[in-house]
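ok new one. same drill as before - structure tokens go in, u give me an amino acid for every spot. 112 of them this time. try not to just spam alanines like last time pls lmao
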């Protein structure tokens, strides 16, 4: 993803990649290419989430988005549910936040 030009940052839970508003499709395409090239797709195929779980995950991520905004933080609009499903649950509103805000907000707005 870094080679494809996406910004990233390291956190205690791993590398987080983000994308500018309106770049959801391009990000998803890069993610698909990188997953295929790394062999990750073969592993993930054995552990794919059901559509019901992805929909529940999307609803939880949108609720977290609303919680974060209720704390006074302005975020981009969530991607569509379809994008979330196609990316295998690859979106969280925490992608837009710096580490300090993440630490502050996680106790108030748990990440699904």
């Amino acid at each position: 993803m870094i080679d494809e030009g996406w910004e990233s940052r390291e956190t205690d839970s791993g590398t987080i990649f983000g994308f500018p508003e309106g770049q959801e499709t391009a990000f998803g395409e890069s993610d698909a290419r990188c997953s295929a090239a790394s062999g990750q797709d073969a592993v993930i195929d054995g552990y794919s989430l059901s559509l019901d779980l992805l929909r529940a995950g999307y609803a939880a991520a949108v609720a977290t988005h609303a919680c974060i905004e209720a704390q006074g933080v302005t975020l981009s609009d969530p991607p569509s549910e379809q994008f979330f499903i196609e990316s295998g649950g690859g979106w969280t509103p925490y992608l837009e936040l710096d580490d300090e805000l993440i630490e502050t907000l996680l106790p108030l707005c748990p990440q699904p």
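The radius of gyration is 14 Å. and btw The longest helix spans residues 51-70.
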